[in-house]
Structures are given as structure tokens and as C-alpha cells.
Write a structure and sequence with these properties.
37% strand; Immunoglobulin-like; 16 strands; 2 domains; mainly beta; nine-stranded mixed beta sheet; elongated; 265 residues; four-stranded antiparallel beta sheet
């Protein structure tokens, strides 16, 4: 299945473009570091994006792409060079290159500095099951007492204290909102789980009826740290988390498993 950038991570990446320096360091007003965005998934081709940092007064949503770089990724035994397609998008098409439990190192030269990072591909989630494939959501009628919401439990094996996140994606072509006050906009339900082995649904978890695809991501600590540290608010401009040496952004890896769930009233 295709793994797309979750909304919560899109927010995190936006912070990398906005905040470039610590208040108390020599890097104040330093906009020379590139922003790197790369996710390795077994069975998928490699794609790494590189952008310029975004100035605080820019109106553009993202920094401009950095072109004409020579990106290399090594698994310790083999080193490959990525090819630039669209501006700032560097790819390697061999879907067998990324494998479970291997460590990958990224490096390239930029502004006379070596930009580098490293990530180890985690195991695929194991034992992912649900206590029920049907989730009933009580009808909310004005003036009446709704029935009690009975949660279901999604669980998986996590004996090694791995980090996880979950996305609940409504797959209906025509969606029926549970809340009649909903303005019609849709977004996936996303949960940063941490180092747990189960998740219990809540009524607020679901905004729409119908079929859901529940995606469980086994992620690395660096990704979890980035999701949990958005760099502060506009009143507290501090460096967001990054695992890029001499740069900003994230170079990480993940694996996912999924199951189906139907929400009804």
C-alpha cells in the first residue's frame, strides 16, 4: 500500500521551514541549512526531498526546492546515488533496496558542508487485531439521552517497546457525517500512540459512518520525537527536533499493517 505524509507530520515539516535557529546560539538568523524530508519503507522506492528554509515573513507554504545535489544512501554494503526528477525530489527506483532491520545512511554536500543522517528500518507491526470489526456510534438526538458508547480495542505485539502511530481513514466515496454540524470537511483521524500495545476507540475518534482502513505504523524514535516536538509556538521560537546533521528535517523509516473496520449507527 502507498504511505502518504500524514497531516500531523505535514504540520511538523511546516515548522522546520518556519523556525531555523535557537535564540541563544550562534545559528541565529541562519537560513543556510537545508530541510530534508525522507521516509524509507520496505518494498517502496526511495524518495528524499530537499528544500531551502522558509523565511518567517515568506508567504509561500514551503521553502523552494534545492536542486542539482548528489544524494547518496548506503546500507553498509551498497551505496546508491539518487536521481533528481522534479526539482528537489531525489529518487532511487529499486524497490528491493530498503529492507527490514537494516541501517541506512544518507549524505550529500551542500554549502561546503556534509549533510547526513541515519535510520534503521523497524519491524512490521505484528499481531495487529481488533476486538470487533464493527463499531457502533450512538445517535445524538436533541432532548434524549444517547446510548452508551462501547469501545473496541485494537491491539498488537510490542514486547520491545517500539514506537507507534495510527491513522483511521474513511474509505467511502460519499461520506455520511455523524455530527450534523460538521461543515463537510474531511480529515483522517490520526493518533500518536507512543510505546504502547493497544488503542481503545472513543466516540470522538470517528466523524463519519462507513468503512475505515485502520493503519498501524511502527515508527522509529526519531520520527516519534519529531511528531511530539513541533518546535514551540509563535511566541516561543525554538528549534524543532531534527536528526539531520548540518540541516533540518527528518530522515526516517517505518513499516505498517492495516485492518478493516465499519462504523455504523
Amino acid at each position: 500500500m502507498e504511505i502518504k505524509l500524514p497531516t500531523i507530520l505535514a504540520v511538523v515539516l511546516a515548522v522546520f521551514f518556519l523556525f531555523s535557529c535557537k535564540k541563544d546560539s550562534s545559528l541565529d538568523n541562519d537560513y543556510t541549512r537545508p530541510v530534508v524530508e525522507g521516509y524509507l519503507v520496505p518494498g517502496k522506492s526511495v524518495l528524499v526531498k530537499v528544500y531551502y528554509q522558509k523565511y518567517l515573513d515568506d508567504t509561500i507554504s514551503l521553502g523552494f526546492p534545492v536542486t542539482d545535489l548528489k544524494l547518496k544512501i548506503s546500507d553498509g554494503a551498497k551505496t546508491v546515488e539518487l536521481t533528481e526528477g522534479a526539482d528537489g525530489n531525489y529518487a532511487y527506483g529499486d524497490t528491493t533496496f530498503v529492507a527490514e532491520n537494516k541501517t541506512y545512511s544518507l549524505s550529500f554536500s551542500y554549502n561546503n558542508k556534509i549533510i547526513s543522517s541515519q535510520t534503521t528500518v523497524p519491524n512490521k507491526p505484528a499481531g495487529f487485531v481488533t476486538s470487533d470489526s464493527l463499531q457502533k456510534v450512538p445517535v445524538m438526538d436533541f432532548g434524549t439521552t444517547p446510548a452508551t458508547f462501547v469501545p473496541i480495542t485494537l491491539s498488537w505485539n510490542n514486547t520491545n517497546g517500539g514506537h507507534y502511530m495510527m491513522i483511521l481513514k474513511n474509505t467511502e466515496n460519499s461520506r455520511t457525517s455523524i455530527n450534523p454540524r460538521n461543515n463537510g470537511s474531511y480529515r483522517d483521524s490520526e493518533v500518536i500512540l507512543g510505546q504502547v500495545s493497544s488503542f481503545q476507540t472513543q466516540q470522538m475518534t470517528f466523524n463519519y459512518l462507513g468503512n475505515y482502513r485502520v493503519l498501524l505504523f511502527h515508527i522509529n524514535k526519531e520520527y516519534s520525537d519529531a511528531l511530539n516536538n513541533n518546535g514551540g509556538s509563535s511566541l516561543n521560537l525554538t528549534n524543532p527536533y531534527t536528526n539531520i546533521v548540518n540541516g533540518l528535517g527528518i530522515f526516517t523509516s517505518m513499516q505498517t499493517d492495516s485492518l478493516n473496520l465499519r462504523v455504523y449507527q
